[in-house]
């Protein structure tokens, strides 16, 4: 009996070592994958938080640009001047921001601000325009004629 145990013992030890190595390897691979997924999740959360921070600043800058053009009557507000002022103020507020990020933030904020304005710029059927124009009466002193 001892001879059989002595003969089988090295084979059992080798098999146990192989099985244990395989289990440790599989568990290790799963742990590494889990750690990588958690790391990606944390990076994504940090990215989202940073994006939301920049978006909040962009909204404040948008409001400041609107206020600047409202209280500065001698500056003509055009799309180019407003965009330039927005970019200038964003660079001051977020040093190191790229031109692409500024454009993206401006587009996002403009989309949010102008979301409710679609009804104002929607096309109106011609008969409605004529009916509205006929319903409007102006005081005589505001009407000017050219000779």
UniProtKB/TrEMBL annotation:
Keywords attached to this entry: Membrane, Transmembrane, Transmembrane helix
Domain of life: Bacteria
Organism: Caproicibacterium amylolyticum
Record bears the keyword Transmembrane helix: yes
Name of the protein described by the UniProt record: Bacteriophage holin of superfamily 6 (Holin_LLH)
Segments crossing the lipid bilayer: 12-33
């Amino acid at each position: 009996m001892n001879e059989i145990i002595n003969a089988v013992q090295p084979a059992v030890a080798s098999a146990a070592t192989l099985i244990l190595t395989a289990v440790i390897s599989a568990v290790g691979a799963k742990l590494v994958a889990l750690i990588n997924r958690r790391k990606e999740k944390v990076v994504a959360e940090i990215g989202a938080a940073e994006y939301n921070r920049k978006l909040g600043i962009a909204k404040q800058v948008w409001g400041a640009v609107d206020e600047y053009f409202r209280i500065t009557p001698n500056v003509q507000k055009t799309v180019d001047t407003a965009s330039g002022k927005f970019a200038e103020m964003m660079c001051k507020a977020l040093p190191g921001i790229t031109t692409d990020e500024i454009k993206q933030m401006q587009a996002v904020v403009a989309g949010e601000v102008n979301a409710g304005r679609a009804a104002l710029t929607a096309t109106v059927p011609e008969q409605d325009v004529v009916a509205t124009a006929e319903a409007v009466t102006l005081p005589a002193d505001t009407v000017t004629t050219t000779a």
